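pls ignore typos typing on phone
S-adenosyl-L-homocysteine + seq
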Amino acid sequence: MWSASVFTLYPDMFPGPLGQSMSGTALGNGLWSLEAIDIRDHGLGRHRAVDDTPAGGGPGMVLRADVLANSLDARLAADDPRPRLLLSPRGETLTQKLARRWADGPGIVLVCGRFEGVDERVIEGRGLTEISIGDYILSGGEIAALTLLDACVRLLPGVMGKLESGEDESFENGLLEYPHYTRPREWEGRSIPDVLLSGDHAKIAKWRRAQAEDLTRARRPDLWAARETE
Ligand code: SAH
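k done
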């Protein structure tokens, strides 16, 4: 079974929203598994301290290398094949391609940072790969971890209602998705484009493709350029 182990100071944040809807049903049906491990179980002293002041000075606190490493070592077998990912604004940005790669594997190990971040030595010493969910700063890695998990879990076999609904989506083919419509046929003076009501599936596919291309060119020149060079 595809399994996720999340190291966090806030285990109660999991499964959180992933316990609802498609991913929640799939979790209940054993299509994937999730364990949230409290890093503080390996905290030091009476107060179970996990952080300390930054070497060299400056604001905030840093998650200690020894505490995090002890937590990882206690819960992960040396031959655990899953990629070990640290949520971090410095990392490679999460993409659909990465989500699909991880979904196709045995699962993932996620480490959620807090405070100013994590002691650099544990990133090196435990081979953590930094992954960002975008160019902005969150207060902790938990919501980023939930985002990354959601992107992976919905791709697991049996999780999504229809297999197709994975393949037509934005980014899967390097394009943004075409616009959607449903009933009613007329709404506030706006109609569904005629072609979608024509029943001509080849024509519909062609129209959708053209819409997707126009949208991508207009909104995401970076994606459009990347396609042309592929
Ligand atoms: N001082 C750091 C930010 C720390 S934010 C810096 O300037 O880069 C605290 C934690 O939140 C991080 O350790 C990380 O785990 C998480 N986090 C914040 N923003 C994130 C993002 N965009 N993607 C993934 N994780 C993020």
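The chain has two domains: 2-153, 168-228. The chain has a mean pLDDT of 96. more later
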